[in-house]
């Protein structure tokens, strides 16, 4: 006997009512994939990027809200949001397993269709870096043809980063930590901040909230580094040391990016402890 969900009380008619697909805008979402070749694997490539961008959208929302809570000194909701961001990164990390099923032979069947487009031009990825505090103004140039996106990145670089607000919490707790001199530059290690963090880590019971906050940031960076590592390994597996579609040296460039540190004070303090 097959089950009739109507008997279970399921609504079966949506004339004039909002359905699942209406609410989620599925018509638009599911017709936004436009392969430019006949290659079987191009759809995988497109969906992998699109889903990554959707998760990045959520990560940015959570990071922005966490930053606001931190600025207000309301840390507990921020902890939850930052945990969610780390889980999103974990989700993105697992996603590489799907892309890894694509071989160099398969990628080369549609590679010409991409022309010069590349994840290097992902404005959301840059925004995540900018919010976290890795602000390299040279990365805005690929968005010059889209003033709205370039302006959004510039506006972000002019406001305190997530970590700047965290430094504000150290100050509020009585630590003598100066604001960073230039907001539109990557975080540089700071001796006073490192000394403050060392004190927090030597006595977690006394500074539990700051201690937890620091660990949330380290967690985020930990997952972020794994994303970069998984990306570069997948890229090497698929294109070897060929140049990237975005024009960089490819794997050599991405390996250099592995050394970029988001929160240097928090990593350096570990050696100092
Ligand atoms: C076949 C799969 C992929 C290949 C061969 C590949 C290749 C590359 C290469 C060579 C670069 C360096 C820039 C360039 O010259 O193009 C790059 C950058 C980048 N890719 Fe991918 N990629 C792949 C998949 C993905 C996916 C699924 C994402 C998810 C959104 C992604 C996001 C990025 C980002 C954000 C950058 C910029 C990294 C940075 O500047 O630090 N890539 N990719």
Automatic annotation (TrEMBL):
Give the cofactor note text. Binds 1 heme group per subunit.
Q: Which InterPro entries does this UniProt record tie to the protein? A: Trp/Indoleamine_2_3_dOase-like, Trp_2_3_dOase
Question: Which residues does the record give as heme binding sites?
Answer: 231
Give the UniProt record's GO annotations in the biological process aspect.
L-tryptophan catabolic process to acetyl-CoA; L-tryptophan catabolic process to kynurenine
Spell out the SUPFAM superfamilies in the cross-references.
Answer: Indolic compounds 2,3-dioxygenase-like
- Recorded family membership: Belongs to the tryptophan 2,3-dioxygenase family.
Q: What is this protein called?
A: Tryptophan 2,3-dioxygenase
Organism of origin is Paracoccus aestuarii
User: Which gene name does the record give?
Assistant: kynA
């Amino acid at each position: 006997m097959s089950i009739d969900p109507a008997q279970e009380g399921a609504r079966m008619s949506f004339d004039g009512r909002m359905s699942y697909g209406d609410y989620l805008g599925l018509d638009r979402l599911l017709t936004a994939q436009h392969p430019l070749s006949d290659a079987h694997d191009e759809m995988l490539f497109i969906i992998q990027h699109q889903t990554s961008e959707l998760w990045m959208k959520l990560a940015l929302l959570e990071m922005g809200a966490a930053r606001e809570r931190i600025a207000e000194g309301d840390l507990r909701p921020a902890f939850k949001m930052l945990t969610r961001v780390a889980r999103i990164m974990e989700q993105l990390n697992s996603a590489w397993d799907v892309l890894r099923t694509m071989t160099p032979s398969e990628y080369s069947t549609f590679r010409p269709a991409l022309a010069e487009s590349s994840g290097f031009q992902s404005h959301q990825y840059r925004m995540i870096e900018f919010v976290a505090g890795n602000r390299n103004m040279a990365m805005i140039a690929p968005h010059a043809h889209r003033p709205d996106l370039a302006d959004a990145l510039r506006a972000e670089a002019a406001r305190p980063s997530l970590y700047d607000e965290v430094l504000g919490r150290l100050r509020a707790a009585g630590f003598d930590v100066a604001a960073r001199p230039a907001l539109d530059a990557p975080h540089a290690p700071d001796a006073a901040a490192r000394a403050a963090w060392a004190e927090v880590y030597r006595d977690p019971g006394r500074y539990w909230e700051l201690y937890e906050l620091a660990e949330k940031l380290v967690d985020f960076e930990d997952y972020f580094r794994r994303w970069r590592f998984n990306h570069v390994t997948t890229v090497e597996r698929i294109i070897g040391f060929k140049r990237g579609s975005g024009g960089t040296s490819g794997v050599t460039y991405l390996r250099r990016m592995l050394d970029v540190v988001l929160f240097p004070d928090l990593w350096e303090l570990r050696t100092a402890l």
